[in-house]
Amino acid sequence: MKKPVRRAIAALALAASCLATSTLATSASAQVAGVPVPAQTCQRTCLETFVNRYLAAMAAHKVDPELFAANVRFTENGIELPFGNEGLWATASGVGQYKLYVPDIETQQVAFLGTVKETASSSATGAARPPELVGLALRLRIEGGKITEVEQIAARPDRAIGGAAVTGSSNPFPATGEAVEKMGAPAPIFSQAIPEKERMSRAELIAVGNAYFEGLQRNDGKGYYPFTDDCIRFENGMDVLLGRDGKRKTCKAQFENDLKGTVTGIRDRRFVAVDRERGIVFAFGFFDHRPINWTWQLGELFKIEKGQISRIEAIFIRGPYGINSGWSTYKQGRSEEIQDVR
Q1: Considering 10, 104, 158, 335, which has the largest number of Cβ atoms within 10 A of its Cβ?
Q2: pTM metric for this prediction
Q3: CB burial class (10 A; 0-12, 13-18, 19+) of residue 245?
């Protein structure tokens, strides 16, 4: 890592450690990536399996008491709902092919970007629509061998009530679920381990992810943008660096030229999963566009190598202006400070 980058990351990490809100402290008798964790901790494969079991249970509409805690808490798109029969739990009909996991062994949480199939109806009494793909950003917390918290963003295709066709949409992009599914499989870089001597601390990885948010909000094109030269950004399954003319931009050039003044604030920044071994950090957050009263609600992950972001993927939806996650206090939901969710 170059000295200027190292100094910048160290400063950001110090700020992150001062500002971050953490909610869990544990005693430990083992280590993962140099971090002490309880010996009985669920490891990478175990946490990823919980995601698979969760998706299968949701598609089957089966709340298995062996899988879920009795008091499991559930939100979808920022709204707390009864668990087991609302949101995707009422309409999911299968699991998609795209699956990108971010297990956090230290905190026993796991984040996920992927797709599920949803069979919705055109109305309360109407016929079911054909199954449609839905983009999914997900966080699970595991305690005592069971899922205790479920947080998900479901990016559904545009639909009309009553079975009428959707008309007048200004969205030039394909439905999120379809676009994410067409990506096929996560890029190989996400499964590549960072050499042990180059692995960054939890605070450092969060600081780099947060630098992305800091650079994007109120952007004047002159900020600190820690991108590799070959950085790639995918949003809702679309390669946003590839122009309509077929020419590819760089992440840095896009921030310096095309994204100036776009986002007026990024708040409720909840970093919910950190994979130190592979250099990946996953966050939920909200992008506000105050002049038009518009909020994007998103789950976003960053692959980080030597203090720089090399790959970004996000799934997002438009939410009511000013909404928060359903997991934050009002003050946290309005804040632009880091929350390290443990």
Answers
A1: 104
A2: 0.89
A3: exposed
